[in-house]
Amino acid sequence: MATAVREPGIRQESSSGNGQAAPQAVDLEAMGRAARQASRKLAALTSTQKNAALHAIADALEERSAEVLAQNELDISAGHANGLSEALLDRLLLTPERMRGLADDTRRVAALPDPVGAELESRVLPNGIRLSRRRIPIGVLGVIYEARPNTTIDIAVLSLKTGNAVILRGGKETLRSNLALVSVIGGALDQQGLPGAAIQYIGNPDRELVSRFLRMDEYVDMLIPRGGNSLHRLCREQSTIPVITGGIGICHYYVDVSAEQERGLDVIVNARTQRPSVCNALDTLLVNRGIAAEFLPKLARRMAGCGVEMRAAPDALPLLEGHGATVLPAGPEDWDTEWMTLILGVKLVDSLDEAIAHIQEHSQDHSDGILTQDWNNAQRFVDAVNSSAVFVNASTRFNDGGQFGLGAEVAISTQKLHARGPMGLEELTTYKWIVLGDMHVRE
After folding, report:
1. Which of 128, 227, 355, 392 is 20 to 30 A (C-alpha) from 218?
2. Which residues, 6+ apart, have CB-to-CB distance to 328 below 8 Å?
3. How far apart are alpha carbons 107 and 219 in whole angstroms?
4. Dihedral of CA 349/352/358/363: which sign?
5. Which residues, given as ranges, of the chain have pLDDT below 70?
């Protein structure tokens, strides 16, 4: 059985005997000190050293895949026993294919340019001083996340590539899987002579630890929550660490009167069904009333073929019924629901302006789009909708670090300070000013 690397402040516990993953005794103060020390060592690494560590992690993920999958199978079995939804179980699940994908993604991150040390700008002031800005690591990251164990690898590899240490706290549903993955990472770091405290995991699901973690501003420089509204609200209200929020969907598509309907349906199907449980999956479809009689029966037939249940506004309901799909009346709360399963809200609007108004009221600024062949309407939509990513005739599922060419992502930020959209390598750096003079003194 794989266990987490033993870091400062962490004591392994025996099995709880009740089918739950065994918790660990955790000393957060010791973890914070160790992370700070590790971050200073990581900041001094060359790109070659960091990339070697990432390749070692990728190799270890393949070599120790069976260990991780065995632990993940226990998490999945416990999830079934605890009545978790199929959507959540899909988020928890690791397969041989997904493990290979994690290894491949790790190698892709290694192949990306290292942003650390890059000069952002340089100029010579009138007094002869040369002034420049240079990218540096943020230092120590704290990431609280739920469900998906692949997030453990995404965060770890991006943190290492940018010279940041990280303290992770995943959901209790994936404790075994995450401990196994952290063990794999720790073994690879040890092989490369790097500090194991670079990637630490809070191996105890006690919620009290989260409250204490949120106040570790002496050691943690940036906090990233990945989860539902309650987690984000908790972090915003209680954290003394700067917080980057995001990862909550309620994603919209507006079907304009000029939309290319048949190909547009392909986009809608992909956005809703390609991975139903993720934050960039489509939740609400707004359809121009001028094409509703023609378009909605086609939509119903396609959704029926994909097993998608629709929640329809009163004027859309009769146009969707009778075409094989499951259609239910929408309630007021449905327009503010991130479905995370095969459900789609459908509402008619009279105009582009009404669609924009609905999105501005109900969107969580994640991923919203328009299907249109009218370029002026596309530009109006892009200008008015201020989500982290705005789409024209492309699936919302592309709002992803890998799809954007960032290699992977720590999170998708929906706020407007520091980072927005998929947070890749550059978003995990800050900068410092470099001032070069010739014995200059200020008068």
Report:
1. 227
2. 309, 310, 311, 312
3. 29
4. positive
5. 1-23, 247
Q: Which residues are CB-contacts of 273 (< 8 A; sequence separation ≥ 6)?
A: 306, 308, 342
pTM: 0.80
Cβ atoms < 10 Å from Cβ of 34? 24
Supply the DSSP symbol for 26: E
**In 10 A of CB 386, how many CB atoms?**
15
Q: Which of 199, 221, 90, 120 has the alpha carbon at shortest distance from 154?
A: 199
Element (H, E) at 223: strand 222-226
- List, for residues 161-175, the tens digit of each pLDDT value: 999 999 999 999 999
pLDDT for residue 22: 63
Q: Which of 151, 134, 136, 150 is nearest to 39 (CA)?
A: 136
Locus of tokens 């069976």: 66
Name the 3-class secondary structure at 269.
helix
Look up residue 342 and give its amino acid.
L
Quote the pLDDT of residue 21: 64
Please tell me the total number of residues recorded for the chain in this structure: 443
Q: Of all helices (H) and strands (E), which one includes residue 350?
A: none
